[in-house]
Here is the input.
Amino acid sequence: MPALRILAALALLALLGISLVPAFGPWPGDMIAPFRLQLAVAALVGLSAAAALKDLRLVGLAGIVVAATVVPIATRLIDRSVLPETAPGRPLSLVVANVLCDNTQYDRVVALVREQQSDIFAAVETTPEWVASLDELKDQYPHSFAPTTLGVFGVALYAKRPFSATLLYAGRRQLPLLRADFGDMVVYVAHPMPPANARLTADNRDYIEALAAAVGAETHPVIIAGDLNTTLWSNNIEPLLRQPMQWPANSGLAYSWPTARPWMAIQIDQVLTRGMTAGSYRTLGDVGSDHYPVRVDLVI
Here is the structure.
């Protein structure tokens, strides 16, 4: 039994250390912060184990670990602006998908988009092959902007209404950022680098800061849609939290990535708004990508 207590104490200390890493900055914090919910579950399991061992010192340590994992989650949930699900006004629906550049199941994406019949469809990782395949949607979306020269960081927008598109380049790596002006609102389609190492984490932050600055200069309602490679719990989302952007109901805690590893479930596919009166978020079915597509129903 003493050996078991020592092992439990070491596991709790390790979990505490991991949970505190995001407090010291984006790297390596933003590789850990997205998994705060998983860390919180592990902390609660540790608390239950400590209680089962009837060791007050272990229970106290486990309580500290639970607090270290739960408090940052609660803080972000409380501080953000969340839209109600419904309100009077003009409805607007949007589907956004990271189609995955290597995914060749084009027909599944096209079928899903046709089934959803959303007002706007946004896609990222649109390689030339994807742009050619999504051209089939022109009968549903007569207005589109889908460059064929952007490779893995391709961004595309398809709409039932006309819009004026501008391709911007954001961050140190000058990655594509699509701005679509519909006259009464602006839609940004975004896809920054993932925070896989210190440099890429800085690139992710630079891109999101540029996106936040662009949004801050807008005078009409705004929608940001795309794979931001950052979560509600991440350090790098802070420039958008300071705007502040609105989170559609049911977003932030959803599971949009990775499709094949549900135990790692996080939401990095975001739709954030400004100037909307209501909105709800839900993930859609598997289309062969490592991301689930997302649908958001808004009221403007």
